[in-house]
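Lab notebook, bench 4. The sequencing result for the construct came back, and we need a structural model before the next group meeting so we can plan mutations. Quick request posted to the team channel:

Model the 3D structure of this chain.
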Amino acid sequence: MSTPKRAVVVGATNGIGKAISCRLAADGFDIIAVGRDKEGRKEAVVNHLIECSSKKSSNDDNAAASQQKKCHHEFRPCDAFSLSQVKECAEGIVRDYSTNGGIDALVMTQGMATIQGFTPTTEGNDEKLTLHLWSRAAFATSLLPALRASSSMPGGAVVMTVLSGGVHSPYTKYAEDPEIKNNYSIKNAADGAGYYTDLFFDKLARQHNNTNINFIHSAPGFVASNWGTEMPMYLRGPIRCMQKLGGKSPEKCAESMVKPVLQCASGNIQLTRPNNNNDGLFILKEDASSGKFTKLHNEEAMESVWNTTKTVLGRAGIVLDD
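Done. Here's the predicted structure in token form:
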């Protein structure tokens, strides 16, 4: 009996993450949906994923019915503002699956859009950077044992962080203000999260134990999702109008985002790494084509960002292996 394909989708309760989890479920993946908990959410998420599984792309009624009976979806609560909760959630997944076929894909979409300044979580890290960067680094690092145990992906397991691949600028003060506490702005927080993502995941991808895992930093483009919910009302209204006029649906976005995952499920990934590198991170543009790093992507910056991430995650008891 073949091992089912499994995907962990963080931020799977709404927006892009919900659409991606549904798309993967329709293609036969068992989904471990991760998100904030509230009354009735577990049942709602799982029931939605079961419905998605019945929409199998083959459109074969018998195959769809069979898949609906066989699928095993679950919801795991986690507040990604807390790296300690991320660690606990990831360790639970590793306990359950690292010796049971592993995890074949990790897709992370958690995020927020605000105009607030540096706003510390209960652990002292900025809220926006925590969702966009630190929590994603924590999930990926903590789930490595299960990702390395993947047994159902001919092209290798996939780790995808959906953020700003190929569209952000570098944050140049990474050495003097590594956690962006003294030079915080909307632009610096956005560029820092994207730039640090490139550097951290590129180094993680190059580690010899991770060469069979495809690490991808993707850009979703402008999507008509619930992005901007945290914005003030006077901004939220115009954002929703622009989304209606020019934003693509989360479902259309998901079609592009899942392409590398489905490619690895059936064969080899069809992306090219920046600079034609033989190893390291892939950049995925919103049209599912290959993207590039910033001009300041270099070894010195990579080491600096790695050490910063190591410090931040270490405060939550998460250990990075050099």
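The CA atoms of residues 44 and 258 lie 23 Å apart.
Will bring this to the meeting.
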